[in-house]
Description:
- By secondary structure, the protein is mainly β.
- The longest helix is centred in the N-terminal third of the chain and has 6 residues.
- A five-stranded mixed beta sheet has the order 8-9-4-3-10, with no helix packed on it. A three-stranded antiparallel beta sheet has the order 1-2-5, with no helix packed on it.
- Helix content is about 10%, strand content about 40%.
Amino acid sequence: MGDLVTVKGGCHCKSVRWSAQIPSQATVWDCNCSICLMKNNKHIIVPDSLFTILSGSDKLKCYKFNTMKAQHLFCNICGVQSFYKPRSNPDGVGINPVCIDTDCLHTLSLSYSKFDGQNWEKHIKTSTITKLSKL
């Protein structure tokens, strides 16, 4: 997993706050499934054990659809999804990089990779995304 850095982030109204350990050279996944495309959702995958909700868990609402596997969590006050539980990584968290506090961003070197969510079942077989939630 490489060198880890601790970052903090959360939603727009700051009701939901979290901390995560992220590789200093992290991959941001750009998915084109129906919901990611519509929300322009991009995410950094980390194992559950490296992610902590600091406050606002009582403010989170969950949206599920189709396979009901992914948990699209959003703040019930401002509506921002700063993280979610992806279908591809049920043992991990997908962090929205634009929700990382700006004073933490200088510690990260981000690269981008495409995930073909419109052909999810086919693409998951060849993608490395599932390994990212493992320590």
